[in-house]
Amino acid sequence: xxxxxxxxxPRDTWGSKLGFVMAAAGSAVGxxxxxxxxxxxxxxxxxxxxxxxxxxxxxxxxxxxxxxFAVGRKTGVSAVxxxxxxxxxxxxxxxxxxxxxxxxxxxYPVVGGWAIAYIYKLATGLLSAxxxxxxxxGSFISNPIEPLMWMGLYLLLNIAIVAxxxxxxxxxxxxxxxxxxxIILIIVSIKGMMLPGASAGLExxxxxxxxxxxxxxxxxxxxxxxxxxxxxxxxxxxxGSYLKKKENLVQTTAMVTAMDxxxxxxxxxxxxxxxxxxxxxxxxxxxxxxxxxxxxxxEMGAIGLMFALMFFVGLSVAALTSSVSLLEVVVSYLIDEKxxxxxxxxxxxxxxxxxxxxxxSISLGGLGPQLFGTGAFDVFDLLTDKIFLAVxxxxxxxxxGWRLNREELEKEITNDGDIKFPLFGLWYNLVKYVIxxxxxxxxxxxxxxxxxxxxxxxxxxxxxVIAVSGIISKKL
Length: 476
Ligand code: PHE
Hints:
The protein is mainly α. It has helices spanning 17-28, 31-43, 47-75, 79-86, 91-104, 108-123, 133-142, 146-163, 168-193, 199-206, 215-228, 235-240, 249-278, 288-298, 301-336, 342-363, 376-403, 406-413, 424-450, 456-475, and strands at residues 370-371, 374-375. It has one domain: Amino acid/polyamine transporter I (Up-down Bundle), CATH 1.20.1740. Bound molecules: phenylalanine. Phenylalanine (PHE) binds next to helix 1, helix 2, helix 11 and helix 15.
């Protein structure tokens, strides 16, 4: 974001169109694409998951992003305010978004910390013992202390950026390092595909095998689409509130969606051929990038080290440009709605996040409190990407479709008729009828199937939290 979020009039806007697209893409492209997408695809059976994910991105993700931009620009205020301004009883949707931001920041910095740690580990000789790379990741993340220090460092970087009232430096860094990461991903993919046995990885990624699909996989694909595109929690509403009236919302949405999705697919191309060539199991879990990328470059000497370093620097920056947007949603809520000073808001939000992250990090070593037998890291991940974001996105659609007025939405999206959007009717019907219905079915079926793996109870708790906050807010 190029501006502070306090509501001074006239509201600040993005300096340039590219600045906005890059900032929104910076929020979207992050650990979700490069860390989460490949291992979730691996655990969910590959090709069929990828296909369902792509369909969700096109039909649901695109429409929800356009809705969030439109709601944000129309109301001109950040998440909670955007709902409140139209109808007080809807502000709970914004509040759930703030809560999701807090919970995502309860585990995201742990993984961001790993990415920074790997820069250091590479520089201090990780590649010299390629056979130990896999084991060293496992013992690193389950160590109770070491990852905490890196997580702390990562969180400090976030605080430093957001406390300064957004972000000149990080935006500039992003503009250079994002294209670099993109190029490195291409190099990694080519290198991986040249290994003997790599084609099995391509087949795994792109040849759908529907016998692997159950309602849990469908919910995972939906959650991945929302998480990766930064939807369902008010982030894109807040970003949209800074957009100029003459900007083309449809085109912007298309660009951000396309960039985000191509990075995810590229990350899949970078991981799976190499994994299959190395004989690793596709369901290797959250360690995937941290094991495959170093291993791929281990045999290439100094050049390999340089590429691997560039990869983890790029990954750390991609993670940072996403997590500052998460932190900013919480911080701007505390400033706008609770009247806190920016510095106090940042300190408060980051303290809560830091505590949640400590629980997340130690849970990977089997320590700390559990909910229904699941550790904090997995609980926060489950609650947010399987429940809060999807339901949040659904509620934004219901709000736009049923509470806002069709003509006004059409005016907002077409800039009072200046821009042609022939698919407006399709978009509107998707948002009003199809998406709420589809998300509800997928979520209910997913929670139901979650009971088989012991995760259903946690998801039910998430749904309960949303229901209770909805009911309370109606009484306010
Ligand atoms: N989209 C980000 C990623 O892929 C994560 C994120 C989710 C950021 C929700 C903001 C809001 O890493």
